[in-house]
Design goal:
- The protein is mainly alpha-helical.
- Helix content is 62%, strand content 0%.
- The two termini are 27 Å apart.
Length: 295
């Protein structure tokens, strides 16, 4: 409670500071002259007055939709929305630019910003201040962002934004793979062993060379074991041991240790109390601290 009180106190001070800082923004220009509007927008952008920049750029587009600065102002509007933490507006503006100007010399920038804004679209307000595990979130935005960056690197392999897009795609791919492991762990907790095993297999089949692969193999080994499919379990263990011999589930003799996992045969007490008593710890596979961790 003390931490929460301090947090909201600091947040209030920060917001008040922002209010004072915003009051010092340049005086708004009411002119609709194209050159004046564009220069005004540039001034706002340079000073990071994103609300004012957005209004100036919107006015420029409304009053001069076919003017000399029309296309450039649309690109800068994407950036202003993104910096103003309006990812949905940035995404929609980028998408509109791509549809209207597919052959523009800077359309690659619109693809890049579309990917960035998609990834941050579901970022919560408190998530900006409190560290959260991104792989625990709904993977929808991460998946769409990956596809947006993929469109960029496919269409514009020589773009200046492509190297950074590749790095972000790698991060997103790792994130999506880790999310599948989280879901598998949840299914183990629910004793849905087939569903958990399928998640592990999905990672192995679709996310090769990601840090989640050792956990995915362990998920398969454990899941098949719990379902009595011992041959498949042994195959998974063999692959895991061949590629990750130091995986923590292996004991000193190099055998996969099942003893701390869920026993499918519950005791009498567990059945009589519908699992309320005699609970056993479900399998949890998470070795990010060992194999190229995702922060």
């Amino acid at each position: 409670m003390r931490f929460i009180a301090i947090f909201f106190l600091l947040l209030t001070i920060m917001l008040q500071g922002c209010s004072v800082w915003r009051s010092k923004s340049p005086q708004k220009v009411t002119s609709t002259d194209e050159q004046t509007l564009y220069q005004t927008a540039q001034t706002y952008i340079s000073n990071r007055f994103w609300d004012d920049a957005i209004k100036a750029l919107q006015s420029l587009e409304a009053n001069h939709p076919f003017g000399r600065y029309a296309e450039q102002s649309q690109l800068e509007l994407i950036y202003a929305y993104y910096m103003n933490e309006e990812p949905e507006a940035a995404n929609a503006t980028a998408d509109r630019f791509i549809r209207l100007h597919p052959d523009h010399e800077h359309v690659d920038y619109a693809y890049y910003m579309k990917g960035l804004s998609t990834f941050t679209r579901n970022k919560s307000f408190f998530g900006r201040f409190i560290a959260t595990d991104l792989s625990m979130r709904d993977p929808g935005s991460a998946s769409q962002s990956f596809n947006d960056f993929k469109a960029l690197v496919t269409r514009f392999p020589n773009s200046e934004y492509t190297p950074d897009a590749f790095k972000r795609m790698e991060f997103l791919r790792n994130l999506l793979a880790r999310h599948e492991i989280h879901v598998a762990n949840y299914y183990f907790e629910r004793q849905a062993y087939l569903a958990a095993t399928n998640r592990g297999r999905y990672v192995v089949e679709n996310f090769q060379q990601t840090p989640a692969i050792p956990d995915a193999l362990a998920v398969m080994a454990q899941g098949y074991h719990l379902m009595g499919m011992n041959d498949l379990s042994k195959d998974s263990i063999r692959v895991l041991k061949l590629n990750f011999p130091d995986y923590p589930a292996f004991d000193d003799k190099g055998e996969f240790n099942f003893q701390y996992k869920v026993d499918p045969k519950k005791g009498v007490v567990s059945h009589l109390t519908f699992g309320f008593f005699d609970k056993q710890k479900p399998p949890t596979f998470d070795t990010r601290n060992i194999y190229n961790p995702i922060k």
